[in-house]
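Final report, closing paragraph on structural work. Over the funding period we assembled a curated collection of sequence-structure pairs, and we close with a single example.
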Amino acid sequence: MKENNLINETSPYLIQHAHNPVNWYAWNDESLKKAKDENKPIFLSVGYSACHWCHVMAHESFENEEVAKFMNDTFVNIKVDREERPDIDDIYQKVCQIATGQGGWPLSVFLTPSQKPFYVGTYFPVLDSYGRQGFGSIIRQLGQAWNEKPKDIEKAADNFLGALQKTETVKITTKLERTILDEAAMNLFQLGDSSYGGFGSAPKFPNAANVSFLFRYAKLTGLSKFNEFGLKTLNKMAKGGIFDQIGGGFHRYSTDARWLVPHFEKMLYDNALIPVNYAEAYQITKDPFYLEILNKTLDWVLREMMSADGGFFSAYDADSEGIEGKFYVWKKSEINEILGDDADLFCLYYDVTDGGNWEGDNILCNNIDISAVSFHFGISEDNIREILTNCSKKLLDVRSKRIHPGLDDKILTSWNSLMITAFAKGYRVTNQKKYLDAAKKCIFFIEKNLFDGDKLLRTYKNNTAKIDGYLEDYSYFANALLDVFEIEPESKYLDLSLKLGCYMVDHFWDSETNSFFMTSDNHEKLIIRPKNNYDLSLPSGNSVSCFVMLRLYHLTQKEKFLEIATQIMESQAQIAAENPFGFGYLLNTIYAYLEKPTEITIVNSENSEICKHLFTKFMPESILVAISDKSQLEKLTKFTFFRGKIFDNETSVYICKNFSCSLPLKSIDQIDSHI
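Its predicted structure, as stored:
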């Protein structure tokens, strides 16, 4: 089959379309110039490799010879991987929201040669159906309008551009007070599903930052219902089909309210964000169940998502052999054959029936307590757990021989940074060295492969790093460096985080709106310079940057960082209180700011009992640094945070809050009395 211009790209999503009859181009100077030179409109198709409906539209329309011919004759056709180019995706998703009230992928946008949108939608069936225009009809009508009604096209494009520019509005400054958190918590709680946890009905997404905020608000107020709701959410997710019961790791979202039927793709970022929730749940409850889910998830990432040199791949597709979920589901007869005498017990525990719980197949989920299974079979709970573990291993071995879903093996700086944070948090609560090792190895990978001088790059594949980093790349990596630094305080981690923080201030900051742009001042210029303040599937780059600034201020006492963090919080606090669903991460930062971060330094971390006590204590407002040797401390005295600390022969803990520090504390009782 003939190749098109995408054949030399590194993005797996673009390569998926390299043999389409559509003469696709990547977004680059060549394709944009071609549109201008030939005065052709641009058809922009944005998606990602694990996107199910992207595959459907590709099969129906982009593999259709007749449709492709018309596209090639009429448009300059450009494919964009939204994971590589979040700026392009952000701009035109906003246009889609303006035009249709919703967005998503595939994103289908028709542009003038100057990149201004004039028609937009998401998935289109190839033929007219159910009252919806088909893609074939749309491209013919728009092609005709381009030739016959150019003024109408230009007017529509100008209207979209005007509306788009208005979305980047100046926020009203709000005083940072406890009432912000009160209003946000009440509004968020009202969105909660009291039966199954989570927010809204269906589809239902994990929303990790919002769960973290409820945990923090419960600590602030002593109101247990907020903790209980967060824990219920995590319990239901862990027992539902959204969690891969035998392999570990979370699928993207649940198509139903009960967390049973997932959209089966597995994204690296979900499996970085969600484990942090389970680490916090363990700190709050000390229930080993949460550690079990954390371990299963992080171990899945280590086993299936880690490259040989320490970076982490992006995603697994939902489909295998062209069928969504086929890799993960089971027939009862298949399980009976594999497990033999243990099959009945396994099937009872994981809701496996002859008729199945989804389209004739079984998605493994757990709706019954282990005590009930123990009573039913007359076997101890410990023996039940052992049998279930052995059965899971057998099924996992069989499943591993199936045809796997497609792997998107590009390595993204921002998502890898989230993974570093997850491993650091995982190490804190489990003390499993492999998690800290994975975090440090990934830092080394990014340092080695994803820097161009002082600039951070976005994506890496086939020994090639490219695309200037976005705000999320800088902020997530700076934050991850601080997470590892707190565990292993080598000066190099703090130095690099500080360098990245300064770079963000110098090249991303917008003093007019008191927020950061998504792109640096030396990035490719698009029709607008985008800015994103909302948490979507990922935390907002502005919110994470704000948290980084706050942490850097406390470690270095550089006032500029506190000034910027405060300005971001003040500019967005009111909208966060009114619409907390999209501002979970920022609310967590406001919580830390209002609670005035507790600065805790463990000097000589030899006393494992003290370290474990502090590491497994829920202290989300704290900056906790554990120094293992004298040379570490000596190198860090250039930073204000570490001055005045003395390295002793026994473990000492210094606690500072509100510009006042304790004397060296030597016992857990003394420590707890100061926290």
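The mean pLDDT is 95. The chain is about 50% helix and 10% strand. We thank the funder for supporting this effort.
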